[in-house]
Write a structure and sequence with these properties.
Layout (H helix, E strand, L loop, with lengths): L7 H18 L4 H13 L3 H10 L5 H20 L6 H21 L30 H21 L5 H21 L5 H20 L31
Amino acid sequence: MIAPRRWWPDVLALAAFVAVTVALASGHLLDFDQRVADWAFAHQPPVPYWTARVLNYLGQGGQVLTPVSLILTGLLFWRTRSVRATFPFIAAFILTYLTIGPAKIYFDRAAPRFTGPEKTILFNPHADGIYAMSYPSGHMGNVLVWYAVMAVLITALLRRPLSRTEWLAIRVAPVAIVFCTTVYLGFHWVTDSIAGVLLGFVLARIILRIPFDTIPLPPVVGRWAGPAGFRPERPRESLV
């Protein structure tokens, strides 16, 4: 599998994530977030609203992304009989668990649908319930990471790189759809989603850099240590 060669996009994304976080902590961008959320709540007739609700499931980790990734992992394991087929799934689970989850707990920001006071600020002492821990957006972090995992698994199953159309359908379209629907539905502020994209972008590129087929394994693994057939998801490096 060909890993991304350049590190400047990762550094730039991390710097942007820090900049957005500092701006929010300093009280900037809060009015912008509120104006966008107010507009979204004022423009939710039934058809667009329920269409957005359905499409937003493309970013649901536990209900959609994780099960689909597990199915693809199982198919690749059945074909290759290699424990390496499970490595992308394990890597994604560990990376998201150690980064996105703790960040959401630490920043403790309420979501737009929260009805308590000071809901736009970070470190909100009033944030609780299902509309707490909004920053950064788990929807967007998940969609970047898990669709990258799916792309890795699908290329191994197809035994060829993804075509441009397939790449757009798997890696780009879900990001755009989930970003728009998440903000429109009031599940996350705009800056939550931007931060989720930036963090998920870096995590996805870390996964693409891991040489799953050449990681040294202990002898006890034996015949289960063969290559799983991971290939580059595109013939040349892509930013996402």
